[in-house]
Amino acid sequence: MTRLEQGSVIDGFVIGPRVHSGAMAELYRVTYDGGRPDPGFPMIMKVPRMGGGEGAENLVGFEVEHQMLQVIEGRHLPRFVAAGDMGRLPFLVMEYIPGRTLQDILDEAAAAKRRPAAEDIARWGRAIAVAAHSLHRQEAVHLDLKPANVILKPDGDCVLVDFGLSWHAHYPDLLAAEMRPAIGSPAWMAPEQVVGVRGDPRSDVFAIGVMLYELATGELPFGAPATTGGLRQRLWMVPAAPRALNPAVPPWLQEVILHCLEATAAQRPPSAAHLAFDLGHPDQVVVGPRGLRTARTKFSAHLKRWFKAAGMEYQPSPLPSTRVGEVPIVMAAVPHRDTTDATLYALRQAASRSLGIRPGARLACVTVVGSGAAQEDEAAMHRFHSELLRQWVRGLDLEDRQVSFHVLQSDDPAGALLAYAHANHVSLIVMGAATHGLALQRWIPTVPARVAAEAPCSVLLVKDAPPLALLSPVEA
């Protein structure tokens, strides 16, 4: 391709310095020509490589990214500005995102010969999962998540870039129609992508697991295969336990990482929101044999998995939003005072109905206590209220669903509940319609109404329903 000259003008954009030259495209900083004010954010122009020997996938990927950037939006995605004519010079102009890529962080860790702390890995991973969830809710799947395509902003937020291999439920899949069956970057590609199934949001969860694995160990769980046979190994191979490569990895983090890397999509976290929840609440992660393992998997176990994978059929996924909707995070706001047995019973029944028959649904039990307790009593207070939540949930048939317990300390109960729902991408809040265990009577009428008015999700306000009131009266 012909390199663009700095200072030249193309379709009203002044070409600035080149900031990146990749295998498929080059990136240039640009501004508007003719004194037009910039759109309120810095801009970058992406020009696909089109010289001799370049594959057709560059132009197909350009068309896909152009299509995607026009229909997806949000703070986790670059804003679209303009596109060039395919017949003359194809280009895309979009928002320039300042920050470091995850690849920069990996390179720095490798140079320092030191792995990042588990807390940092969890924070970065959670930011990526939140960004992926935002994309999935818009009926899109990235399908090429890797460290170079993840930008971590100074404020801790994450932006995903490079949508040339992505999939959207409402538009033709140009890549599947024109390209090879396995589409993606080999090191981060999910098993279902290897066999040609696109559109499952859990493929992005797998890719996040690969990035978490590399952050924790400095290695890729399945290497960087260059052949179809090498790619297919992830259909049956169990990666080495991160703790075998880096003993500093805590069991809870290994549990989360290996959960993401399961060969079958149904065995991974059911959505990116669930993954973000686990990374944001490590104390609530249930650690099993997967998280405690330090030895490598035996050859006999790999052989069994190989036979199983040989006959496995991958089915197309339902719409991403449908998949996300099938595995909600249900938050039960459980009062701890100024309440009655009838209220607690009604909440329990409503929570059970809200979980329904969806096996991937998660229940988060939350209570809010005032901040007046003495500092030295905080640990005991949290243990006490956590035990109250555990007693409340014993009346529920959870059917092996994930459940967690959270004690929030705040003098603003409604604000605390709203902040929790926002931060954890809660799908439904179940709470009492009359009270929420508040220390001050003046709060009682306002908390449910405020939560219902300001919540980022649906809210189910439950009235008292004591068990005896449900029985028909006995006629004399």
Your description of this structure?
The chain is built from 17 helices and 16 strands. It has 476 residues and is α/β, with parallel strands linked by helices. It folds into 3 domains: 87 residues, Phosphorylase Kinase, domain 1, CATH 3.30.200.20; 224 residues, Orthogonal Bundle (Transferase(Phosphotransferase), domain 1), CATH 1.10.510; 143 residues, Rossmann fold (3-Layer(aba) Sandwich). Helix 3 packs antiparallel against helix 6, helix 3 runs antiparallel to helix 10 and helix 6 packs across helix 9. The longest helix has 19 residues. The termini are far apart. About 2% of the residues have low confidence.
Supply database-style keywords.
476 residues, alpha/beta, Phosphorylase Kinase, domain 1, Transferase(Phosphotransferase), domain 1, Rossmann fold, 3 domains, 6-stranded antiparallel β-sheet, 17 helices, 36% helix
Would you kindly provide a brief summary of this structure?
This protein has 476 residues and is an alpha/beta fold.
